[in-house]
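Hi R.,

Here's the chain you asked about this morning:
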Amino acid sequence: MTQSEIGIIIVTYNSASEIGACLDAAAQSGAEILVVDNASSDATLAEVSSRNVRFIANKTNRGFAAAINQGVSALNCSYIVFLNPDVTLHTGLEPLRHACSLPGVAGASGQLLDARGRPQTGFMVRRLPTPGALVLESLLLNRIWPGNPVNRRYRALDLDYSKDLQVEQPAGAFFMVRRSVWEELGGLDERFFPVWFEDVDFCRRIWDRGMILRYLPEVVASHTGARSISSLALEMRRFYWYRSLLQYSAKHFSPSRFRLVCLAVVTGSILRGIGESARQKRLKAIAVFSKVVRLAWHSFWSGAPVS
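And here is the predicted structure, written out as tokens:
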């Protein structure tokens, strides 16, 4: 492997507490590393600078998809790894590169471990969401009954993660893609702002082109999870998640199925807003879920996601 074959892009947003360990481990891979920072207000860039890692400092938060596209354009590598700042590599990347070089393979990912060293099943690989899966997700039925058949299939809980697998949706937290595929698809869709579902959409477009994604258990990294996202207010996180869910549904489902998802979001958000307000004894939950209800209702009538 030459140093220019593999490039690692790490998008940061107030990631000072975890970016150091991420960069130290990534440096051992021999890959070219680029950090794209989305206007962090903490010491993220100081941590990056202290390690002499190349970075791009955006003056505003451009969102994950735009930052990844920005990073790929700035690198001249045949294989690109999307790596979250809360991911620490434990093995090399050569098996992923080899898998991506095979005919028909667009991308590959490895095994993500939690803080206790357990595989993050249900997260590190999923199947592409169906309308039914997103309806159950929006109605919170997947939380109430996580073992239901639709949820088990969506979260790929039936797979044997000790084996090499052909998969549908590796987590965007740790994912290698061939540059030629990224260029063919036009990169990530920046309408998924600031985050969520941009990686799902990218995998869906890969599968729509008849290309393959692989999972390799011998490539291992640890993942703490959602550190950068936690710097966003909880209410805004929920709104952004639902908005991206509706964006994905409108893009990939039929109009009737999109409207079904919209109704599920309306119903689930009303129930969730009432329940959380009663439990927390404050009205913030009502306010944010009212905003989600308005978004989903307007999207239902327009037949397209409304910002």
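One quick note: The first strand starts at residue 6 and ends at 12.

Cheers,
M.
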